[in-house]
Amino acid sequence: MRTAAASIAATTWIMMAILLLMGTPSNAEEEEGIIEKTVVKVTNGLKVQLTAHCKSKDDDLGEKVLTTDGFFSWKFYPNVLPTTLYFCSFEWDGSGGNKSFNIYVESRDDERCTHCQWTIYEKGPCLYDGGTKVYDICYPFDS
User: Fold this and answer.
1) pLDDT tens across 44-79, in order?
2) Where are the domains of the chain?
3) What is the C-alpha to C-alpha distance for residues 115 and 75, in angstroms, rounded to an integer?
4) According to the CATH classification, is domain 38-138 in 2.60.40?
5) CA atoms of 77 and 91, how far apart (whole Å)
6) Long-range contacts for 60-66 (Cβ within 8 Å, ≥24 apart)?
7) What secondary structure does DSSP assign to 43-97, as a single string?
8) What's residue 8's pLDDT?
């Protein structure tokens, strides 16, 4: 009898541990504030049509054709270690070919924005600054 009772108790503890481990990640993602999705928005600030193609090493977001002031956006969970990277190529009439830019670099952007709003101009992309309320954090294209 004792052996059967001990076996049932051990099995119960193992099952409880498995259920606890299985439930933890999904609960953490659903609780507000623990894990927050990052949103990246890319807007065409040019006076001509813009073709944008953004991707990470895991996700290809496809080619998007944006009219003036047109935009597209996507959401994702950044990596636990600050290694998330999304990069884009941009092309428009008169651009002289593809221009590229690392649109989201977790080590650069994680503390700065969870809703990263970029506008693409001829000289390069500019990020919306929540403090000044304008797109004044500007960078040149990488190439």
Assistant:
1) 999 999 999 999 999 999 999 999 999 999 999 999
2) 1-35, 38-138
3) 9
4) yes
5) 28
6) 61/86, 66/42
7) EE-SSS-EEEEEE-SS-EEEEEEE-TT-EEEEEEPPPSSS--EEEEEEEETTS-S
8) 60
In Å, how far are 11, 29, 82, 111, 140 from 33, measured between CA atoms?
35, 9, 18, 14, 33
3 vs 7: CA distance, rounded Å: 6
Distance CA 124, CA 141 (A): 5
How does strand 85-92 pair with strand 50-55? antiparallel
Angstrom distance (rounded) from CA 68 to CA 43: 8
CB 120 within 8 A of CB 44: yes
Rounded to 10 degrees, what is the CA torsion of 9, 14, 17, 21?
Answer: -160
- pLDDT tens-digit readout, 81-127: 999 999 999 999 988 889 999 999 999 999 999 999 999 999 999 99
User: Which residue, among 38, 32, 33, has the nearest Cα to 84 in the 3D structure?
Assistant: 38
This prediction has a pTM of 0.75
pLDDT tens digits, 19-35:
333 333 333 344 455 77
